[in-house]
Amino acid sequence: MDKRKNISLILAVAIPILMIFLIIASIYWPRATAHPKFNFLYLMGENYINNQQYVVQNEKLIFTQKNSENNAKFYIYDTTQNKSTEISFQDAQKLNLNANLKSPDGFEVVSGGNDGGIFPLFFGSTDNYYSRYLKNDHTTLKLNIPHNYNFRFLGWVKS
After folding, report:
1. Is the domain of 81 the same as that of 8?
2. CA angle at residue 135 from 129 to 140, to 5 degrees?
3. In whole angstroms, what is the distance from residue 94 CA to residue 76 CA?
4. What is the arithmetic mean of pLDDT over 81-110?
């Protein structure tokens, strides 16, 4: 009888501990194995009202209209190093771009939400709203992009 009590006690302790490890693994495993393969081009600081000044057509970045207040800056986001590098418009024009919102490996750039939790009126924050993330079907990775409401995704860099 002592062996049965010991086995029951061991199972009673082991099963909850095992469940905790399985839950932790199911949360962190997708992040640990998520490796986006495609960098992307984006701009910040573009001022436009109804028409976009910079668009991707036939895999190339083009300028569609002149605006004297334009102070757009172009960046390539390196998904492996999680950092942005500013480039000139001329260098951006040399890139071959895929303008689809989803990359060929299934990621898309999304903005955060304004989640105040249980008490959004008291604890709501727009901080998360201006954050950018790479998201696929399994995980979401925060991007290291400064908060800016003028962020605009342009396209995935084709290798």
Report:
1. no
2. 75
3. 12
4. 94
Cβ(79)–Cβ(65) below 8 Å: no
Given a contact cutoff of 8 angstroms between Cβ atoms, the answer to whether 16 and 28 are in contact is: no
Tell me: do 118 and 134 sit in the same domain: yes
Return the structure tokens found at 24.
């932790």
Q: What is the pLDDT of residues 135-155, one digit of tens each?
A: 998 888 889 998 777 889 999
Q: Are residues 146 and 127 in the same domain?
A: yes
Q: Which domain does 15 fall in, by range?
A: 1-33
Q: What phi-psi label fits residue 76: left (phi over 0), alpha (psi between -120 and 50 degrees) or beta?
A: beta
Q: Encode pLDDT of 1-15 as tens digits.
A: 567 778 888 888 889
Largest CA-CA distance found in the chain, in angstroms, rounded: 88
To the question of pTM greater than 0.85 for the whole model, the response is: no
**Structural Rg of the chain based on CA atoms:** 23
Shared domain for 111 and 58, answered yes or no, is yes
The pairing of strands 40-44 and 152-157 is antiparallel
| Mean pLDDT score, 10-33 | 81
Residues 23 and 49 in one domain: no
Claim to verify: residue 27 and residue 40 sit in the same structural domain:
no
Q: Which residue type occupies 69?
A: E
Query: Per the structure, how many domains does the chain have?
Result: 2
